[in-house]
Amino acid sequence: MFDEIITDILRAEGWDTYTDRPNDRGGPTKWGITLKTLSSWRGHECTAQDVKDLGEIEARAIYEADYVIGPRFDALPKLLAPMLVDCGVNHGTSRAAKWLQLAVDTTPDGRIGPKTLQAVEAANPVAIYLKVCATRVSFYGKLVTDDPTQAENAHGWNNRAAKWLKRLADHISGG
Predict the structure, then answer these.
(1) Do 102 and 131 meet the contact criterion of CB atoms below 8 Å apart?
(2) Which end of the chain has the lower number of beta carbons within 10 A, N or C?
(3) Residue 84 φ/ψ, nearest 5 degrees
(4) Quick one: which of 13, 128, 14, 147 has its CA closest to 67?
């Protein structure tokens, strides 16, 4: 399941396209992996050239370790896990975990532990999914309101959120 999730993320992030746009807070990015993330992964300060040279196999390993297993999104129900991984990639895993915790009314500490997993198991997964999506859309709006230079990203962000809502609708309708 997670290989497919990572493939979806690579597709959403533009595959092996290297970018370094002035209004992209992530700076140099390839496969959706930023300079900061690559430096953290490798354990030393990397350069923009290191990002340009990043290969798919290493990008996949980063996503699996840092965005699936590390934050424990792999412990979530099949309906929720892919969306939370995507939220973690786009917004940070701690923020994504807090959104999940708020959706299930547990303490939002940004770490998925036994209490969060128990609350997720006891709640309606569709309701959780919708609450996290709503929080995500609101967050996008706040980003643009707080920093109008981010408006150029709004279309892509909205498309990303809409994709997850469509997936839920397909899931509910059996499509």
Answers:
(1) yes
(2) C
(3) -70, -35
(4) 13
The partner residues of 30 in beta bridges, in order of sequence, read: 18, 33
| DSSP structure class, residue 68 | I
Domains along the sequence of the chain with CATH: 1-69 (no CATH), 77-175 (1.20.141.10)
At 149, is the secondary structure helix, strand, or coil?
helix
pTM above threshold 0.85 = yes
Q: How far does CA 2 lie from the centroid of its chain? A: 13
140 close to 154: Cβ distance less than 8 angstroms: yes
Residue 90 burial by Cβ neighbours in a 10 Å radius (0-12, 13-18, 19+): buried
Q: What is the token pair recorded at 110?
A: 């940004």
Query: CA 104 to CA 139: how far, in whole Å?
Result: 18
| Averaged confidence pLDDT in the chain | 94
